[in-house]
Specification:
Strand content: 15-25%
Distance between the termini: 58 Å
Largest sheet: 7 strands, mixed
Number of strands: 18
Shape: globular
Bound molecules: NADPH dihydro-nicotinamide-adenine-dinucleotide phosphate
Strand order of the largest sheet: 13-14-15-12-11-16-17
Length: 478
């Protein structure tokens, strides 16, 4: 039990000035949609309506693509890399200047704890723009030939789990390489993308280089299927990723897909238990487990199973769940009612299939969408909770005896995005890393991101890489 209670420490939301309604950002200006449709975005922590947002239809997507094409042909692709870099640096600096506002806005619209939006999401957004600003005038040294060409107009569709960060992963490399973009944020988290549109205006980015069309899945479909785009970049569910791959297969569009995951976090008997427990908690409860690379399958060596589980339970009892804007909050709100329903359903399936469910004592707020940190033990590889992406604060625990068994179990998944290894033996880390079929393998840490480091998956986790030198390839005609 905690020795003392934490006093409330809410971050003020007065730094954010929300508009009642937002238009589409096309050709450098906010304006209405052609058919006048709109939807509301709410705070998942309170269900309060935050703003009304325009729903872009096919005609709007068409206008956005035309604006991006014009900007590509007349301005952006012709601009020397060193000039494009100046805009990217400017955007990065404005993101830093407005960091507190963006963090509060992200936590309001997404439900993630302010500690994470303030210390992880927004600093990484700025870092992505700084990093790619550095590449803009050095593309000939990236290893893709002496004068690599951009692709043209990129259609980019992003999810709700890291709204502004996924925007940065998409827009920064596209612009650095000389492409223009039309981006669709997720229906439940459009507000930071719209704030980013204001940042583009503030940075005097030429009109049409960045266009933001808000809407739901249909807007995303209209964008990726638009014949006027040259490149599709998508992050989201494997199911929608497959639909996009099918739609783009008969076209000349270059496609990158960053899809789901079911990562194994493997703890060997010689791992320092306290550090491993912190890594397990960070692996699955960071961002309420709404993380494609979350360590949602814990594989513990049988000899240390009870010690690790006891420490993990003790640690979970200290996690504070509640107001995302409170600076002491560890676990915020689930992003939407639909996602909460999915987490509940899969958790019930877990129990029905015979796994044991445990959560620490935890009071859930009455309003909003909440799910307590949850552990399932007695999980077998055949259980749905060991195979399917729950995308919530739910950890499935399995055991193993030998390194070979750990590899076998870790790779026994249709996904291959990430994995974690906890051991003090460097040789075992390298042995595991060379056998795990995962795009990222973290050793004695988890969920660490850096713009210089390529990120992406094997198998049904998608294809293509984002970040680092490798990520540039997705936006160059090579
Ligand atoms: P989706 O894949 O549906 O959403 C991702 C983005 O694609 C959103 O902007 C969405 O719009 C858009 N979209 C939806 N349908 C289409 C389409 N046919 N063509 C083009 N774009 C489309 O994920 P969900 O939000 O529905 O989440 C469902 C599950 O997916 C989660 O429970 C989780 O398991 C997984 N997921 C994985 C993510 C990852 O990073 N790997 C991220 C998000 C979800 P809109 O939001 O308006 O529907």
């Amino acid at each position: 039990m905690p020795k003392f209670e934490y006093a409330p420490a809410p971050e003020s939301r007065s730094i954010v000035s929300l508009r009642e309604s937002y238009g589409l950002f096309i050709n450098g200006e906010f304006g209405p949609g052609v058919d006048g449709r709109a939807f509301k975005t709410i705070s998942p922590a309170t269900e309060e309506v935050l703003a009304e947002v325009t729903e872009a239809g096919p005609a709007d997507v068409d206008r956005a693509v035309s604006a991006a094409r014009k900007a590509y042909e007349h301005t952006w692709s012709a601009m020397p890399g060193r000039e494009r870099a100046k805009y990217l640096f400017r955007i990065a600096r404005i993101v830093q200047e407005r960091a507190r506002e963006l963090a509060v806005l992200e936590s309001l619209d997404n439900g993630k704890p302010i500690r994470e939006s303030r210390d992880v999401d927004i600093p990484l957004v700025a870092a992505h723009f700084f990093y790619h600003a550095g590449w803009a005038d050095k593309l000939e040294y990236a290893g893709y030939g002496p004068a690599p060409r951009p692709l043209g107009v990129a259609g980019q569709v992003i999810p709700w789990n890291f709204p502004l960060l996924m925007l940065a992963w998409k827009i920064a490399p596209a612009l650095a390489c000389g492409n223009t973009v039309v981006l669709k944020p997720a229906e439940t988290t459009p507000l930071t993308a719209l704030a980013f549109a204001e940042i583009c205006q503030q940075a005097d980015l030429p009109p049409g280089v960045v266009n933001i069309v808000t809407g739901a899945g249909e807007t995303g479909r209209a964008l990726v299927e638009h014949p006027g785009i040259d490149k599709v970049a998508f992050t989201g569910s494997t199911e929608v990723g497959k639909q996009i791959a099918r739609a783009c297969a008969p076209t000349r569009k270059k496609v990158t897909l960053e899809l789901g995951g079911k990562a194994a976090n493997v703890v060997f008997e010689d791992a320092p238990v306290d550090q491993a427990v912190e890594g397990i908690v960070n692996g699955i409860f960071f961002n309420q487990g709404h993380v494609c690379c979350a360590g949602s399958r814990l594989l513990v060596q049988e000899s240390v199973y009870s010690d690790v589980l006891a420490s993990l339970r003790r640690r979970l009892a200290t996690l504070r769940l509640g107001d995302p804007l409170d600076k002491n909050t560890d676990v915020g709100a689930i992003n939407s009612a639909a996602q909460l329903a999915k987490i509940r359903e899969l958790s019930e399936v877990g129990e029905a299939e015979g796994a044991q469910r445990w959560s620490p004592p935890c009071e859930l707020p009455v309003k909003g969408f909440w799910f307590p940190p949850t552990i399932f033990t007695g999980v077998s590889q055949a259980h749905r909770i060991a195979r399917e992406e729950i995308f919530g604060p739910v950890l499935s625990v399995l055991t193993f005896r030998t390194p070979a068994e750990a590899v076998e179990k870790a790779n026994n998944t249709p996904y291959g995005l990430s994995a974690g290894v906890w051991t003090e033996k460097g040789s075992l880390i390298l042995w595991m890393a060379s056998r795990l079929r995962a795009g990222v393998v973290w050793a004695n840490t988890f969920n660490k991101f850096d713009p210089t480091s390529p990120f992406g998956g094997y198998k049904e986790s998608g294809y293509g890489r984002e970040g680092g030198r490798h990520g540039l390839e997705a936006y160059l005609d090579v």
